[in-house]
Specification:
Strand content: 35-45%
Organism: Phytophthora nicotianae P1976
Keywords: Disulfide bond, Repeat, Signal
Number of strands: 26
Order of helices and strands: HEEEEEHEEEEEEEEEHEEEEEEEEEHEEE
Number of domains: 3
InterPro entries: Apple (IPR000177), CBD (IPR000254), Pan_app (IPR003609)
Helix content: 10-25%
Protein name: Apple domain-containing protein
Radius of gyration: 23 Å
GO molecular function: cellulose binding
CATH topology of the largest domain: Hepatocyte Growth Factor
């Protein structure tokens, strides 16, 4: 690919990004404001908020007075207090306002049983994207001042819900039926329960305990964080060492944390700078970007697609092909995977014999093979 062709591709990419940054929101209460096929940022209203009634119809309606900061296509995952069926959105807010301990709620209008669901929450924590959900905090909520009565080694819930632990402990999932308050590892104190840092794997170590997983990360070059899962089909614990905390998604039974003393390598490159070639291999790019091989002689730092963090450069997810699309860019290849319900991963190759880029949508990651001109990634999606 000639430099001029690269510039043309980048110009097209910039145009797409620019179009996405100048979104026109619906300006009329009662007017349509999107559907589930669109990025959540596009489902917006100048007045009121964008309420998903079903996957094909979102509508601007008035904000409930007691819960004004509505988040469309967002679920406050976990921390459930009570579930109430058959309410409307404003009644869900009112129910939270009159329920002791309710700090927020998630409302889902369209469900398999045909009933609306209002999930009352003790916290706005666990914020994840979920099509069709709307979440908001109760604006007048006053947190209770009573301390947690649990002690280290006490039970703290199960896969259906987590209760409290003392400040110096966190709630460790041993199996789906038993979570327990245990001491926080000194080097990884900010544990996130039922959260997976998806992608960006450095190494997987089996047979460790939670504190050992933290220690392994602390002693491994480049390890910024980890995800630990105690219960697995093979009977072994799994400690996934990570180069980043990106790719945060819900996963029952997982615990994730950052290594508090991690210092990332400094990279002088900026987005748009050259980052190597096929002879030198990819060099560094700033956080939030990756080194895109446009042709054997020119690799460039470009921004990571929002829906596919943790891009792997020089890797082909061989096999598990779903379909192949021509003429896309890295971010539109990711986007094609995002909007295909059967797609879980993709491989993108910019330079091919026919002069067109190729985007291979995948049902899985297949067999990882070295391919200098390829990039591969996973679709980011919450797991219930």
């Amino acid at each position: 690919m000639q430099v001029s062709a690269v510039i043309s591709l980048l110009a097209a990419w910039t145009a797409i990004s620019s179009a996405q940054s100048h979104i026109r929101c619906q300006n009329t209460i009662g007017g349509p404001c999107g559907d589930s096929s669109r990025p959540r940022e596009w489902n917006c209203c100048d007045y009121g908020y964008c309420q998903p009634w079903n996957s094909g119809y979102y509508q601007c309606i008035d904000k409930p007075e007691q819960c004004p900061n509505q988040e469309t296509d967002i679920d406050y995952y976990g921390n459930d207090l009570e579930t109430v069926y058959g309410l409307q959105p404003d009644a869900c807010c009112a129910r939270c306002a009159t329920t002791s301990g309710c700090a927020a709620y998630t409302f889902v209008n369209e469900n398999p049983d045909g009933k609306t669901a209002c999930y009352l929450k003790t916290s706005t924590a666990g914020r994840v994207e979920k099509k069709g959900a709307v979440s908001a905090a109760y604006k007048d909520f006053v947190p209770p001042n009573n301390p947690c009565s649990a002690k280290v080694w006490d039970s703290c819930g199960n896969a259906n819900g987590v209760t409290c632990c003392p400040d110096d402990a966190y709630c460790q999932p041993w199996d789906s039926g038993y979570y327990q308050c245990i001491d926080r590892p000194d080097k990884c104190p900010d544990q996130e329960v039922d959260i997976d840092y998806y992608g960006n794997d450095l190494e997987t170590v089996y047979g460790l305990y939670p504190t050992d997983c933290c220690e392994k990360c602390a002693s491994t070059d480049g390890c910024a964080a980890y995800t630990f899962i105690n219960e697995n089909p093979d009977g072994r614990t799994a400690c996934y060492l990570k180069s980043s905390t990106a790719g945060r998604r819900t996963k029952k039974g997982a615990v994730s944390a950052a290594y508090k003393d991690f210092v990332g390598p400094t990279c002088p490159a900026k987005v748009g700078d050259q980052c190597g070639n096929s002879n030198s291999g990819p060099t560094c790019c700033p956080s939030g970007s990756f080194c895109q091989p446009w042709n054997p002689g020119y690799y460039q730092c470009v921004a990571e697609p929002d829906w596919c963090p943790g891009i792997e450069v020089g890797v082909d997810f061989y096999g598990d092909d779903l379909s192949m699309k021509k003429g896309l860019l890295p971010d539109t290849c990711c986007q094609a995977c995002h909007f295909d319900a059967n797609c879980k991963a993709f491989t993108f190759v910019n330079q091919n014999d026919d002069g067109q880029s190729a985007c291979y949508l995948k049902t899985g990651s297949g067999t990882r093979k070295s391919h200098a001109g390829a990039i591969s990634g996973y679709k980011l999606e919450p797991v219930e």
